[in-house]
Design goal:
mainly alpha, 3 helices
Length: 67
C-alpha cells in the first residue's frame, strides 16, 4: 500500500515519520527523500514530519525553532 493510500484510508493525522538512524543497515537519508517525493500535499508532509509527533514529545514550536 502506498503512503498516499494510507493517508486516504486512516488520515494523515495518525502518521509520523521515524528513522532507525544510525542503525548500520538503515537507509538514511533515503527514507527522508522517499517521503518528500510522495505525491502528497505539503500540509500532509508537514503533519507526518512534525505536527503529529510534536505533542507526543511536548514540543509546541514550529520545525527548525527547537534548539
Amino acid at each position: 500500500m502506498t503512503l498516499p493510500a494510507v493517508c486516504e484510508l486512516v488520515g494523515d493525522d495518525y502518521l509520523a515519520f521515524n528513522t532507525d538512524y544510525p542503525h548500520p543497515d538503515g537507509t538514511w537519508p533515503a527514507g527522508l527523500a522517499d517521503l518528500e517525493s510522495q505525491p502528497l500535499p505539503a500540509e500532509s508532509i508537514k503533519k507526518i514530519f512534525w505536527d503529529n509527533a510534536a505533542p507526543l514529545f511536548g514540543v509546541d514550536s514550529e520545525p527548525g525553532s527547537v534548539q
